[in-house]
Amino acid sequence: MEQRKILMLVGDYGEDLEIYFAYQSLLMLGFQVHAGCPNRKPGDKIKTAVHDFRDGDQTYLETRGHDFELNVDLEGLDPTTYEGLVIPGGRAPEYLRLHHKVVDLVRHFVSHNKPIVAVCHGIQLLAAAGGIENRQLTCYPACRFEVTQSKGIYNDLKADEAIVDGNIVTSPAWPGHPAAFREFIKLLRVKITHE
Questions:
Q1: Which distant-in-sequence residues (6+ apart) come within 8 Å of 126 by Cβ?
Q2: Integer Cα distance of 63 and 65 in angstroms
Q3: Do the beta carbons of residue 173 and residue 89 sit within 8 Å?
Q4: Closest alpha carbon to 121 in 165, 90, 99
Q5: Which of 116, 139, 176, 186 is buried deepest, with most CB atoms within 10 A?
Q6: Helix ranges restricted to H, 36-189
Q7: CA gap 153, 177 in Å, rounded
Q8: Which CA distances in Å does 69 have to 15, 26, 94, 112?
Protein backbone atom coordinates (compact mmCIF):
# COMPACT_ATOMS: atom_id res chain seq x y z
CA MET A 1 0.00 0.00 0.00
CA GLU A 2 1.31 3.43 -0.93
CA GLN A 3 2.09 5.75 1.98
CA ARG A 4 -0.50 8.50 2.45
CA LYS A 5 0.86 12.01 1.76
CA ILE A 6 0.36 15.36 3.50
CA LEU A 7 1.60 18.69 2.15
CA MET A 8 2.94 21.35 4.49
CA LEU A 9 3.52 24.93 3.28
CA VAL A 10 6.37 26.58 5.14
CA GLY A 11 8.75 29.51 4.82
CA ASP A 12 11.34 31.55 6.65
CA TYR A 13 10.24 32.59 10.12
CA GLY A 14 7.29 30.29 10.24
CA GLU A 15 6.52 29.38 13.83
CA ASP A 16 8.98 26.74 15.08
CA LEU A 17 6.55 24.72 17.18
CA GLU A 18 3.83 24.84 14.55
CA ILE A 19 6.19 23.46 11.93
CA TYR A 20 7.97 20.82 13.98
CA PHE A 21 4.91 19.57 15.88
CA ALA A 22 2.91 19.04 12.69
CA TYR A 23 5.77 17.46 10.79
CA GLN A 24 6.88 15.04 13.50
CA SER A 25 3.38 14.09 14.68
CA LEU A 26 2.18 13.22 11.20
CA LEU A 27 5.36 11.23 10.51
CA MET A 28 4.71 9.33 13.74
CA LEU A 29 1.23 8.44 12.45
CA GLY A 30 2.73 6.95 9.30
CA PHE A 31 2.12 9.76 6.82
CA GLN A 32 4.66 10.91 4.29
CA VAL A 33 4.92 14.65 5.00
CA HIS A 34 6.23 16.90 2.25
CA ALA A 35 7.31 20.36 3.39
CA GLY A 36 7.92 22.94 0.71
CA CYS A 37 8.58 26.62 0.20
CA PRO A 38 8.52 28.65 -3.03
CA ASN A 39 11.89 29.27 -4.67
CA ARG A 40 13.54 26.59 -2.53
CA LYS A 41 14.55 23.03 -3.30
CA PRO A 42 14.64 19.81 -1.28
CA GLY A 43 17.60 19.93 1.08
CA ASP A 44 17.41 23.71 1.47
CA LYS A 45 16.66 24.95 4.96
CA ILE A 46 14.32 27.63 6.23
CA LYS A 47 14.78 29.56 9.45
CA THR A 48 11.99 29.27 12.00
CA ALA A 49 10.94 31.68 14.73
CA VAL A 50 9.73 31.06 18.27
CA HIS A 51 6.82 33.24 19.36
CA ASP A 52 6.00 33.63 23.03
CA PHE A 53 4.35 36.05 25.41
CA ARG A 54 5.96 37.77 28.36
CA ASP A 55 4.08 39.47 31.18
CA GLY A 56 3.30 43.06 30.35
CA ASP A 57 4.07 42.85 26.63
CA GLN A 58 1.36 43.99 24.23
CA THR A 59 2.28 41.44 21.58
CA TYR A 60 4.40 38.34 21.22
CA LEU A 61 8.18 38.21 21.43
CA GLU A 62 9.95 36.66 18.45
CA THR A 63 13.28 34.86 18.75
CA ARG A 64 15.21 32.75 16.25
CA GLY A 65 14.17 29.11 16.16
CA HIS A 66 15.68 26.06 14.50
CA ASP A 67 16.54 25.46 10.88
CA PHE A 68 14.03 23.18 9.14
CA GLU A 69 15.00 21.15 6.08
CA LEU A 70 12.64 21.12 3.11
CA ASN A 71 11.93 17.85 1.33
CA VAL A 72 9.80 18.79 -1.69
CA ASP A 73 9.92 21.24 -4.59
CA LEU A 74 6.63 23.13 -4.97
CA GLU A 75 7.35 23.81 -8.64
CA GLY A 76 5.51 21.20 -10.65
CA LEU A 77 4.01 19.60 -7.55
CA ASP A 78 0.77 17.70 -8.22
CA PRO A 79 -1.66 18.45 -5.36
CA THR A 80 -4.00 15.64 -6.43
CA THR A 81 -1.58 13.14 -4.85
CA TYR A 82 -1.99 14.66 -1.35
CA GLU A 83 -4.72 13.87 1.16
CA GLY A 84 -4.33 16.88 3.45
CA LEU A 85 -2.72 20.27 3.92
CA VAL A 86 -0.96 21.80 6.93
CA ILE A 87 -0.53 25.59 7.11
CA PRO A 88 1.61 26.60 10.10
CA GLY A 89 1.59 30.20 11.28
CA GLY A 90 4.34 32.60 12.17
CA ARG A 91 5.43 35.27 9.72
CA ALA A 92 5.75 32.99 6.69
CA PRO A 93 2.07 33.12 5.61
CA GLU A 94 2.38 36.92 5.23
CA TYR A 95 4.64 36.51 2.22
CA LEU A 96 3.74 32.99 1.08
CA ARG A 97 0.35 34.37 0.03
CA LEU A 98 2.16 36.59 -2.49
CA HIS A 99 3.16 33.49 -4.49
CA HIS A 100 0.46 32.46 -6.96
CA LYS A 101 1.61 28.82 -6.93
CA VAL A 102 1.15 28.62 -3.14
CA VAL A 103 -2.31 30.21 -3.27
CA ASP A 104 -3.29 27.84 -6.10
CA LEU A 105 -2.18 24.87 -3.99
CA VAL A 106 -4.34 26.03 -1.08
CA ARG A 107 -7.28 26.57 -3.48
CA HIS A 108 -6.95 22.96 -4.61
CA PHE A 109 -7.43 21.65 -1.07
CA VAL A 110 -10.31 24.03 -0.37
CA SER A 111 -12.16 23.33 -3.62
CA HIS A 112 -11.68 19.56 -3.42
CA ASN A 113 -12.83 19.47 0.20
CA LYS A 114 -9.59 17.87 1.42
CA PRO A 115 -8.62 18.16 5.10
CA ILE A 116 -6.79 21.38 6.00
CA VAL A 117 -5.39 22.51 9.32
CA ALA A 118 -4.30 26.15 9.71
CA VAL A 119 -2.84 27.46 12.95
CA CYS A 120 -2.32 31.07 14.04
CA HIS A 121 -1.34 33.26 11.04
CA GLY A 122 -1.91 30.30 8.71
CA ILE A 123 -5.38 31.76 8.14
CA GLN A 124 -3.71 34.40 5.94
CA LEU A 125 -3.12 31.77 3.25
CA LEU A 126 -6.69 30.49 3.50
CA ALA A 127 -8.05 34.04 3.20
CA ALA A 128 -5.86 34.69 0.15
CA ALA A 129 -7.08 31.49 -1.51
CA GLY A 130 -10.74 32.22 -0.89
CA GLY A 131 -13.48 29.72 -0.22
CA ILE A 132 -13.83 30.54 3.48
CA GLU A 133 -17.06 32.50 3.13
CA ASN A 134 -19.57 31.62 5.89
CA ARG A 135 -17.06 29.23 7.48
CA GLN A 136 -16.63 29.08 11.25
CA LEU A 137 -12.91 29.85 11.75
CA THR A 138 -10.40 31.05 14.28
CA CYS A 139 -6.84 32.35 14.15
CA TYR A 140 -4.39 34.54 15.99
CA PRO A 141 -6.59 37.49 17.09
CA ALA A 142 -4.60 40.06 15.07
CA CYS A 143 -5.61 38.15 11.89
CA ARG A 144 -9.34 38.11 12.62
CA PHE A 145 -9.97 40.95 10.20
CA GLU A 146 -8.68 38.81 7.35
CA VAL A 147 -11.33 36.25 8.28
CA THR A 148 -14.14 38.78 8.47
CA GLN A 149 -13.05 40.68 5.34
CA SER A 150 -13.13 37.35 3.50
CA LYS A 151 -16.70 36.84 4.75
CA GLY A 152 -15.68 34.08 7.14
CA ILE A 153 -17.08 33.91 10.67
CA TYR A 154 -14.41 34.62 13.27
CA ASN A 155 -14.60 32.70 16.57
CA ASP A 156 -12.66 34.14 19.50
CA LEU A 157 -11.32 30.96 21.09
CA LYS A 158 -8.76 30.32 23.79
CA ALA A 159 -5.25 29.60 22.51
CA ASP A 160 -5.57 25.89 23.33
CA GLU A 161 -8.82 25.40 21.42
CA ALA A 162 -9.71 24.60 17.80
CA ILE A 163 -12.78 24.74 15.61
CA VAL A 164 -13.82 22.55 12.69
CA ASP A 165 -16.00 23.62 9.78
CA GLY A 166 -16.30 20.95 7.14
CA ASN A 167 -12.81 20.12 5.89
CA ILE A 168 -11.06 23.03 7.66
CA VAL A 169 -9.61 22.95 11.18
CA THR A 170 -8.27 26.20 12.68
CA SER A 171 -6.67 27.12 15.98
CA PRO A 172 -5.46 30.47 17.36
CA ALA A 173 -1.92 29.38 18.25
CA TRP A 174 0.44 26.49 18.99
CA PRO A 175 -1.12 25.69 22.41
CA GLY A 176 -4.08 24.45 20.33
CA HIS A 177 -2.09 21.70 18.61
CA PRO A 178 -3.65 18.82 20.59
CA ALA A 179 -7.18 20.01 19.80
CA ALA A 180 -6.46 20.96 16.18
CA PHE A 181 -4.54 17.85 15.19
CA ARG A 182 -6.99 15.56 17.00
CA GLU A 183 -9.64 16.94 14.64
CA PHE A 184 -7.35 16.99 11.59
CA ILE A 185 -6.51 13.30 11.90
CA LYS A 186 -10.24 12.51 12.25
CA LEU A 187 -10.78 14.24 8.90
CA LEU A 188 -7.93 12.10 7.53
CA ARG A 189 -9.80 9.00 8.79
CA VAL A 190 -7.13 8.07 11.33
CA LYS A 191 -8.37 6.35 14.44
CA ILE A 192 -6.16 5.95 17.49
CA THR A 193 -7.14 3.36 20.07
CA HIS A 194 -5.62 2.52 23.42
CA GLU A 195 -5.43 -1.04 24.68
A1: 87, 106, 110, 116, 118, 132, 137, 168, 170
A2: 6
A3: yes
A4: 90
A5: 139
A6: 92-96, 100-111, 123-129, 144-149, 177-187
A7: 21
A8: 14, 16, 20, 28
> DSSP characters for 11-65?
-TTEEHHHHHHHHHHHHHTT-EEEEE-TT--TT-EEEEEEEE--TT-SS-EEEEE
**C-alpha radius of gyration, the chain, whole number:** 15
> Pairing between strand 61-69 and 45-52?
antiparallel
Q: Which class for 106: exposed (0-12), middle (13-18), buried (19 or more C-beta within 10 A)?
A: buried
- pTM confidence score: 0.96
Q: Which of 162, 158, 151, 83 is nearest to 122 (CA)?
A: 162
Phi-psi region of 144 (alpha: psi -120 to 50; beta: other; left: phi over 0): alpha
* Count of residues making up the chain: 195
- Weakest-pLDDT range from 44-58, 81-95, 101-115: 44-58
Beta-bridge mates of residue 48 = 14
